[in-house]
Amino acid sequence: MPCTAKKFEAARPEMNSAGKHGGKPEMRDVDVVLTTRELARLIKSKGIDLNSLQDEKYDSLLGESTSAGLIFGATGGVMEAAIRSAYFLITKQESPEALLNLTPIRGLKGCKEASVDIPGVGAVKVAVVHGLSNARPILEAVRKKEAPWHFIEFMCCPGGCIGGGGQPRTSLPPSDQVRQARINSIYNADAHIYAKRKSYENKEVLALYQKFLENPNSHLAHELLHTHYTDRSKQLTVKKDA
């Protein structure tokens, strides 16, 4: 994972649904979390040469992927993928080309906004924020009930997951130049490499809902796929001036 926080998430008490539904309370949903950098070190330590390996199909379940999942790694990517799906699920029509290249919410600007017209719904207003220093004005607008957005995406790391704490280090210090290069690589793959660019085209995810989760937003889907916010502000230590 690019995110070091996933190590803590895997240890959360509610991440034990596999045991509860499988009749074995000691089972965890996730056994271990490796960061991208740790995985790279593991591959090197085992002497694995990826370039010499023969191509094979991914394991199932969840071996199929779409570029809608890939762009999650860039700031604005979660929003863009969601809009592609929302348009289809609401209109029952394929997303127009413009929604496959939603430039207003791409890039490294701290706060980005866009408005998307969806037939039968009207204008859907969205906002994208990355870097917690940029979150305050958006949160203040929400608190004051002055927020015009229907959907807000927050990412803690500058640039999104491509700038996560577990990502490979570069010879250059962390900079927008490095972040933008990683983002460009993701969107290049989205546009030119992946045959499927929308989340709802993933047949294995569709089968998962049909055979087990029942449907999006079902009680079981909420129980297994959602966590809840826990206020830990009392654990913070106030920094005193020297």
Automatic annotation (TrEMBL):
Domain Iron hydrogenase small subunit residue range list: 173-233
InterPro entries assigned to the protein according to its UniProt record, in alphabetical order: Cytosolic_Fe-S_CAF (IPR050340), Fe_hydrogenase (IPR009016), Fe_hydrogenase_lsu_C (IPR004108), Fe_hydrogenase_ssu (IPR003149), Fe_hydrogenase_ssu_sf (IPR036991)
Region (Disordered): 1-26
Residue spans of biased composition, Basic and acidic residues class: 1-12
Highest taxon of the lineage: Bacteria
Protein name in UniProt: Iron hydrogenase small subunit domain-containing protein
Organism: Desulforamulus profundi
Source organism phylogeny: Bacteria, Bacillati, Bacillota, Clostridia, Eubacteriales
